[in-house]
Amino acid sequence: MISSLRCLPAAFALALVGTAGLVPTAEARVKNPVAEFAGIDKITGRIFNFDVYMDETVQFGSLQVTPRVCYTSEEGEEPKTDSFVEVDEITLDRKIRRVFSGWMFAESPGLNAVEHAVFDVWLKDCKNASDVPAPSGN
């Protein structure tokens, strides 16, 4: 009985080594400096695409869009693009009201898009560069 207990740690170690390849690893995420959004003006029916640098704010209609972080999966991995975004509305009496704060997913634009009475905004992509000039200080 005692001799079989001495073998137990070795057997446990072998079992762990044997299953090491089966343990899922965390997917590597690439941090990007630019988030690409699309927005629709429901009055005119026009769709606009716009780029926003991290921690910068762009106004789309009465909405102010501020991405805080934007991740993509590494090349060769299943495409996954997500961004933590804050969206504020400028009301008619010039007050700022937070209408969205959370994660948007480019592969599922309807999941966490901003749905406003006049304007909708959703994440399209995260990018390394933009045609829009970078804000000063970046």
Please tell me about this protein's structure.
This is Glycosyl hydrolase family 5. InterPro entries: DUF2155. It comes from Nitratireductor aestuarii. Pfam families: DUF2155. The protein is mostly beta strands. The chain has one domain (29-127). Helices cover 12% and strands 46% of the residues. The protein has one helix at residues 2-18, and strands spanning 29-31, 34-41, 46-53, 58-60, 63-73, 81-90, 96-105, 114-115, 119-127. Strands 1, 4, 5, 6 and 7 form a five-stranded antiparallel beta sheet that branches. Strands 3-2-9-8 form a four-stranded antiparallel beta sheet, with no helix packed on it.
Topology (elements, then pairings):
Layout: H1 2-18, E1 29-31, E2 34-41, E3 46-53, E4 58-60, E5 63-73, E6 81-90, E7 96-105, E8 114-115, E9 119-127
